[in-house]
Amino acid sequence: AFGLALGVRHMGSVKYKALTFILTFLLYTSFHLSRKPISIVKSELHKNCSSFSELATIASSNSRNQQPSLPSLHTDIDCSWKPFDKSNYKQLLGAMDYSFLCAYAVGMYLSGIIGERLPIRLYLTVGMLTSGLFTCLFGLGYFYNIHSLGFYIFVQVANGLVQTTGWPSVVTCIGNWFGKGRRGLIMGLWNSHTSVGNILGSLIAGYWVSSNWGLSFIVPGLIIAVMGVICFLFLIEPLCFWVICMSVSTKSWKGVNGHTEVYLQYKENNSQVNDTQLLLPRDSVCVPVQPVVVVKSESEPSAISFMGALRIPGVIEFSLCLLFAKLVSYTFLFWLPLYITKAAHLDAKKAGDLSTLFDVGGIVGGILAGVISDKLGKRATTCAVMLLLAAPTLYGFSMISEFGLGPTIGMLLVCGGLVNGPYALITTAVSADLGTHKSLKGNARALSTVTAIIDGTGSVGAALGPLLAGLLSAGGWDQVFYMLMTADFLALLLLLRLVTKEVSSSKSRPISAVE
């Protein structure tokens, strides 16, 4: 009977793992899908007005000399969306990015702590519905002809705060369902939702950007709101101790290895019913999914404190490394379409479509980083090598992008892989490893807080990158690329201690610095 129970347990476990993998993938895809439109719409908020000015001058001259009865065009024709029609438009666009990302960074530290004390399904659902609301509000500015910078910054700040509900929640779900065995590969595949969301967001926003940019926000906002409803209906939170119940006549079962005080059965009058329990048959006997002894405890393990999470070995180093790695990634996320528009002289839609190649490279880079780190057992070393290669590649991209479309496409793919590889690995597999670190002694409630600390620190860099890009680009795009290369080298330096620890390990099996 016990062997049969393990077989049923395995089938049930695989089913729920697959459901969680696919559902959380789609949920966070919608988060990134709703963030992408602002980078696509930037080139529409401020257009190159020189051609309009020339047309206006000619028409004005003709109206004076030949046809005075025709209405004249003004040389200050409104070809851009106020208030982004001024010469300081880059700083204003950078301020919008900064307001979103700064709110996201601050909110992330609180989000993980709150998320561990609330039901993940409800927390995530509320966050997605409110994020959809604020994304749609930005688009409504087009239909209601709103030209107030304060309105757009308010929407960005509010959206940044509510979007912090997403990452700690989905990582907690996926991290608690999957063990460390092939976590790098699994999370490398899973983390491609970031790039998939960016690609879909670019294509959806690009479809309407030239004709009706309000829909570039409203459609993604509706998508993430719908996904929030799906989350509420279908997301299953993992039990701390997964059990599968079977209708077998073994009610006298005494536990594992002769232990008679094992607490394995649910009581009929239990007032707190987990989602997973509702899926299990009644009047049944519960057996553990793994041959471990679960001793009855009067209280669940308490959620870890902020300082307690910081004391986990490796959390500080990887957090600071992610600050600079995410600075580079988010600068590309928010400014790449505009850079392509200016450097390659393409319209907003073509530039948005071309920028998706960076995310295609990011998918491959994230998966490769996971596979390699699983094979070697060295997370920090894998990140360090990719960061080392990324810096000169960024310089190459800044040079080659001026030589035509073909070389630009190739360099976008390579840059995407090397930039997003370490970022993906740290935010997923490394965060999950640290959140289930052996020093926690099995306390699974630390994962959300650890994830929030790492991604929150990274989000500080994500806020600084686009802001600095907006300021530095006024003096030329070369300065932006120098800033990105410097950030990559700093991220590499912060990992050197962990890399040394991994490389110098003399044990028989590979040891990761996060173990």
TrEMBL record:
It is found in: Membrane. It catalyses: D-glucose 6-phosphate(in) + phosphate(out) = D-glucose 6-phosphate(out) + phosphate(in). Signal peptide: none annotated. Keywords: Membrane, Sugar transport, Transmembrane, Transmembrane helix, Transport. GO terms for cellular component: endoplasmic reticulum membrane. The chain crosses the membrane at residues 16-33, 92-114, 120-144, 189-209, 215-244, 315-336, 356-373, 380-397, 409-434, 446-468, 480-499. GO terms for molecular function: glucose 6-phosphate:phosphate antiporter activity. It is a multi-pass membrane protein. Residues 23-503 form the Major facilitator superfamily (MFS) profile domain. It comes from the Eukaryota. The keyword Cytoplasm does not apply. PROSITE patterns: MFS. SUPFAM superfamilies: MFS general substrate transporter. GO terms for biological process: phosphate ion transmembrane transport. Belongs to the major facilitator superfamily. Organophosphate:Pi antiporter (OPA) (TC 2.A.1.4) family. This is Major facilitator superfamily (MFS) profile domain-containing protein. The gene is SLC37A1.
